[in-house]
Amino acid sequence: MLATRFAPFVILAACGTAEPPTSPPVQADGAPATLSAAPDCGADDYRSLVGNPLAAVSLPADLDTRIIRPGEVVTMEYVGTRMTIEVDEDGVVTAVRCG
Asked: Which Pfam family would be a valid example here (predicted)?
């Protein structure tokens, strides 16, 4: 009786196929390909904002930014060209990073 209960799971498990391993990308000359650098949002240029009130900060209008306040729900998606600015309960900048 026990074997009959688990038979569908055994059959489904046997149906799975493993993906063949992939080889790393190579250039036309056979040399290993290098990954290009990730997009940079320029956060290093704004690290001096940490410790300052967000209300006193002036940012370029075309700068892609996301402000995260305490308790806010945010997505975990990484956008390399977006600058994320975290502030505390008092509105003081606590972190500046890409993403």
From this structure: Inhibitor_I78
Backbone angles phi, psi at 93, to 5 degrees: -65, 125
| Helices and strands counted in the chain (H then E) | 1, 3
Query: If you count them, how many residues does the chain have?
Result: 99
Q: Where are the beta strands (DSSP E) in the chain?
A: 65-68, 83-87, 93-98
pTM of the predicted model, to two decimals? 0.61
Evaluate whether 70 touches 88 at the Cβ level (below 8 Å).
Answer: yes
Domain boundaries, the chain: 36-99
92: its two tokens: 């003081």
pLDDT tens digits, one per residue of 32-60: 655 555 568 999 999 999 999 999 999 99
CB atoms under 10 Å from CB of 63, counted, come to 12
